[in-house]
Amino acid sequence: MDWQERAIRIMEDDRRRFVRDLQDGLLQILSNTSMRLDFLMRSMDVETAQAHEEILRVYRRLDQAIVDVRHLIDDLQPVPVAEVGLGTALVELAHRLEQEWGVPITVVDDSAGASMSRVTADLMLYRAVQEAVTNAVKHAQTERIIVRLYRKGPHLRIDVVDDGRGFDPQYPHPGQYGLGIMSDRIAAVGGGCLIESELGRGTQVHFSVPMPARSHAQ
């Protein structure tokens, strides 16, 4: 196992610990506070209408915080790429995000079961696609997202395409599309990342990673 693989495995272990901390700490506190607010509203005198409205606003914001934390926990969960394969793992990711955000996400796997042979490489591809799709549902105001896996020469390619509002690549929204994060993940396995977008015309994110010789020869 080389140093990059060790570093990636350490990061995944850190994700597991962070998930446990969120579940046992922050999520429990938020949920308990929400229940107490609910009890308080039910027991208040009807004459204290203004206080009731203020508590209701806090209650709603707290509920949204709970939803956000649960989404974060889902995003950080370990991914069984080694067990199910990259294509199947991305289908499962699309299903979960579609349920959470209500945006139709289609995965088209034309890769004929292509694998990078190293679990860490498949994992980095998965995380990069996860970042691209999550950014699209959060920022793009899109009505649909298509993820396509395919081979092109000695490379495995993955395209993430949305029909949202797009953006000017010269002036992206701060943090939008996480170009740095996605590029770093793909570069770690010897690949490249390209983002194409135009205002009002959606966004396309392209990932390309060289496959092991025995994989692209099939």
UniProtKB/TrEMBL annotation:
Recorded GO MF terms: ATP binding; phosphorelay sensor kinase activity; protein dimerization activity
Entry keyword annotation includes Nucleotide-binding: yes
Pfam families in the cross-refs: HATPase_c, HisKA_3
Domain Histidine kinase: 21-213
Keyword list, A-Z: ATP-binding, Kinase, Nucleotide-binding, Phosphoprotein, Transferase, Two-component regulatory system
Record bears the keyword Kinase: yes
Catalysed reactions, semicolon-separated: ATP + protein L-histidine = ADP + protein N-phospho-L-histidine
Enzymatic class: transferase
EC code(s) of this entry: 2.7.13.3
Gene Ontology CC: membrane
Alphabetized PANTHER family for the sequence: NITRATE/NITRITE SENSOR PROTEIN NARX-RELATED, NITRATE_NITRITE SENSOR PROTEIN NARQ
The protein's name in its UniProt record: histidine kinase
